[in-house]
Amino acid sequence: MGKLDCSLKVLVVDDMMSMRNIVKRSLVEIGYQDVQFAINGEEALEKLKSGGFGLVLLDWNMPVMSGIEVLRAMRANPGFQKIPVLMITAEAKMENIMEAVQAGVSAYLVKPFSGQALQEKLEKVFDKLSKGNA
Q1: Sheet holding 9-13: strands in order across?
Q2: CATH of the domain at 92
Q3: Residue 134: inside a domain, yes or no?
Q4: Quick check: helix, strand or coil at residue 132?
Q5: CA-to-CA distance for 126 and 133, rounded, in angstroms?
Q6: Long-range contacts: 109-117, Cβ < 8 Å, 24+?
Q7: Which of helix, strand or coil describes residue 120?
């Protein structure tokens, strides 16, 4: 497993404050310091335009713009295409997972999750990236 680069700027996108806080706490425990939030997909894309993000953790079900719509928009934008996206969602149905994979998700984590599970997913994502087959 590759070591995580905890200096990356992370964007957590979730409409529920409690979930944003849980995800942030898990990220801080792993070692990330620069964790920012967006409460919906539209806000997420605006924040991404400011640049510098190295990782996006994305909820599926949100008002204004869903996570899958954000993912598709990111993969269609040359500036955001390479940013790893971890979908964190209660949507555990195989068709949702397949839709996310087809849209270019880096990894998929079903809620509820442990900090350990989050860390393992992130290690796999960055391990794949470092090998150049993401």
Answers
A1: 35-38, 9-13, 53-58, 85-89, 107-110
A2: 3.40.50.2300
A3: no
A4: coil
A5: 10
A6: 111/19, 113/26, 113/88, 115/25, 115/26, 115/29, 115/30
A7: helix
55 inside domain: yes
Which residues in the chain come in under a pLDDT of 70? 1-2, 133-134
Spatial separation of the C-alpha atoms in residues 106 and 112, rounded to whole Å: 19
With CA atoms as reference, report the closest residue to 96 among 129, 67, 134, 74.
67
Helix (H) or strand (E) holding 124: helix 115-131
Helix H or strand E segment including 1? none
Decide if 2 contacts 123 (C-beta within 8 A).
yes
φ, ψ of residue 82 to 5 degrees: the values are -90, -5
Q: Report yes or no on 1 lying in a domain.
A: no
pTM listed for this prediction: 0.94
pLDDT of the residue at 1: 44
Would 4 be classed as within a structural domain? no
Residue 92 lies in domain: 9-128
Q: How many domains does the chain have?
A: 1
Concatenating the DSSP letter of every residue in 35-101 gives EEEESSHHHHHHHHHT--EEEEEE-S--SSS-HHHHHHHHHHSTTTTTS-EEEEES---HHHHHHHH
